[in-house]
Amino acid sequence: MKVTIVGMWNSFPNGTEPTSGYLLEKDGVRILLDAGSGIAGGIQKYIGIHDLDYIILSHYHHDHAGDAEAFMLARRVARQLKRVDRNLKIYGPESGAAAKTIRRMKYTTFLPVKGHKAYTIGPFRVEFHRNEHSVETYAIKVTDDNGAVFVHTSDTCYRGSLVRFSFGADLLLVDSKLYEGFDGKVEGHMNAEEAGRLASKADVQQAVLTNLPHHGEREVLLDSAKQHPVGKVMLAEAGMTFEI
Ligand SMILES: [Zn+2]
C-alpha cells in the first residue's frame, strides 16, 4: 500500500500544512484516516476530493475530524450534480455530537466503529484499539492483502495493549504531541520518549512521530524517541510518502 502524510500538526494547521490526515491507497481503493482541519484542501494536492469514498475518524477532536463536514458537503454537491453515484462512507466512534451530524448528512453513510470488530474495505482489513484519551478514540490498524501492516495510534496515553496491537507493523505513525518530561497520562497523549518505547517494544520496521507540536525544537523529539532501540524513526512531514 501507499501511505501519504497529508497533514500532521497538532491543534491547528501550520500555514498550508494541515492537522492529522493520512491517505492509504491500493488497487484504486483509497482510505483517509482522520480529516483534521486543513485536510479537505490539503488532500487535493494528491487526489481529487471526489476520488475518496472512505474516511475513518479516530475521534472527533477538531485536529482529527474538523474537516469531515467539508468532505460530506463536497459529496452532497457531487451527488446532486450527478458527478458521483456513490455515498461517502465514514467510520467513526458512536458517541459525540459529530456522530449525529454525520448520521444526518445526505449522501454520507455512517458506520459506527465497534472496537472488537474487523472491517474489510477493498484490499484492506481494518482493526481498532480503544485508546485512553479525553473522548472515545481508537488507534487504527490497516493490513493489506499482501500482509503489509500500517498502524496509526491517533491520540492516546501510552498503553501496554498498544504494543500488542502495533506489534511487527511495517509502519507506525505514533502520537508525539509532548516533549519528554510532560506527563502523557494527564494530557491523554504520549511524549516522545513513550512514542519511542512503543515503537521499540512493538518491534516495528519504521516509526514516524506525528501529531507534532508547533512549539519547541522538534528534533529533540527524535532524540527522546531514540533512547530506545528503534529501527528507523523520523519526524512526520506533510507530503511524505511510504510504500509498504
Ligand atoms: Zn484528541
Automatic annotation (TrEMBL):
Transmembrane segments: none annotated. Residues 18-208 form the Metallo-beta-lactamase domain. Keywords: Zinc. It holds the Pfam family Lactamase_B. One of its GO terms (molecular function) is 3'-tRNA processing endoribonuclease activity. It comes from the Bacteria. This is MBL fold metallo-hydrolase.
